[in-house]
Amino acid sequence: MAMTRQAAERSATERLEWLARAGYAARGLVYVMVAGLVLLGSVGGGSPDSKSALQLLLDQPFGRIWLGLVAVALIGFVLWRLMQAIANADNHPENAKGYVARAGMLVSAITYSGLAFYAVSHALQMGGGGSGDGSRSWTAWLMRQPFGPYLVGIVGLCILGAGLALIFKGIGRRYRRFLSLDAHLHPALDLACVFGLVAKGVVFLIVASFFLYAAFAVDPDQAGSTADALTWVRQLPFGAALYILLGLGLLSFGLYGFIEARYRRVQPPSLQQARQAMPI
User: Is residue 126 part of a domain?
Assistant: First the structure.
């Protein structure tokens, strides 16, 4: 009986590992398509964000099947993020820095849950998760709550912190400790990781500034998404060149997702470890 239980736990752990790797690959695919929308000038008039990328996938032959597979992979990614946040699968230290890192994983799980729901609903033709401007709609809802502007400001600060963390993770090569990849043997892959993380961090910083200004102005219409951030960049002096540079950076972040799918150290906790990590 004990051997059967151990075999079942080992099988569950292996399945979660494959789901996590599929999730990293799915995230990489989404950002490669976002980068394609950026570099090709928003194919079909869509905006360069993750939902538009999924809609582009849906429009391809057998699009619902492909989107369904991506949805399953994203669900696996959400489960892995929860294991990282709740069960500390990456073995972050039990200090403030470690708790902040795990909180970031929890926020990531929530974010990709929304994207996974969007993919599932469109793959099944449920009509949910519309392609409207979600950032402004839920910011408007948040603004109507008690202390709403302060809540929106906190969201902006969280996005700001995530952006800085991505930039420092890239510049400081902190991602290397999670990869079974010899950077000296694969310098091009290592450079893609750096460029992708920094570019994604810069986009986060711009989005954070939108939210912070929305909180200051008490105006949810000032909040923005990745597409808004890219549009803003395009309007700057030398904006066309910066826009293309960010597009290449998002392409690199997509490649970083594929690199993680292949080389990421994924060590899901056992069921007993997961239970022990639960607060109740």
Answer: yes
For residue 215, being part of any structural domain is answered with: yes
Residues 266, 184, 198: CA angle, nearest 5 degrees: 65
- 52-68: pLDDT as tens digits: 788 888 888 888 888 99
CA angle 67/56/68 to nearest 5° reads 5
Q: How many domains does one find in the chain?
A: 1
Mean pLDDT of all residues in 94-119: 85
Residue 233, domain member (yes or no): yes
| Structure-token match 């996005």, residue found | 159
Task: Record the pTM.
Answer: 0.86
Residues in the chain: 280
Q: Is 125 left (phi over 0), alpha (psi -120 to 50) or beta?
A: left
How many C-beta neighbours within 10 Å does residue 4 have? Answer: 8
2 domain-assigned: no
Confidence of residue 43 (pLDDT cuts 50, 70, 90): very low
Burial 59-75 (b: 16+ CB within 10 A, else e): eeeebeebbbbbbbbbb
Neighbouring CB atoms inside 10 A of 185's CB total 8
